[in-house]
Amino acid sequence: MAPVKISLVTVGHMPRDLKLAAVRSWRSSVFQIVGTAESYALNRDADGPDWEYSDQAIEELLPTQFEGDFLIAITNVPLTDNYYARRLNGNRGVVSLNEVTDIMRAANIPIENAVLRLLYAATLVYKRFGNRIPRTGENAPYTHDETRGCLFDMNAYKPDLVASCDGPTVCSDCAAQLRNQRVPLETVEAVRQELKRVRKPLYYRLADWIRVHPILALIISGIVAVLLGTIGSLIASYIYAALTASSSDS
Ligand SMILES: [Zn+2]
User: Do 80 and 190 lie in a common domain?
Assistant: First the structure.
């Protein structure tokens, strides 16, 4: 399958620690970010009762013509029903980092992981609905309420998003549904393989492991300390022997 082309734009102010360049240069065989990085102004106030932006308000801010097969806009403002992603008309979608940013920071997960996870989900949604993005509200169910670390977790409780932003996957139920909806087996498998690279940095993965296995970590650090001490004394002995040999020669 040829990679799906995605136009990725931003609307309004972005968090300073979001590295969108890393998302734009992400190597994938299933999607490709096309076009230049465009930023659109959020030149209107929220129109919802809880200071959220309605789908219509976001739709009016976004371009209707774009290079990609579909367009994803990233914003930092709350959306209808406090969703972190909404599907709009005209093969467009919006991802809100509102609250998501804080959740990712607290879990030491790069914000880019949340964006990549949503791009993979959007790509599979586009394929499973016959190369189109159905609007939110259209009768197009494909998520599950249970949190499985899957791209199609509903995450009604936003912090559950953490489970699918560090080594996410496509669960076996969703993989079977995708096959039934004529998404090639190879595409699903390629997505699963690429998702293994959507990880938090090694340092924080090690820190997580130590938190879960504190006694084992203590034993390993003790063994490493003894080994380092032994290696250090061996090096010192070798240097001393070499110096002694050279002074006796002279
Ligand atoms: Zn699933």
Answer: yes
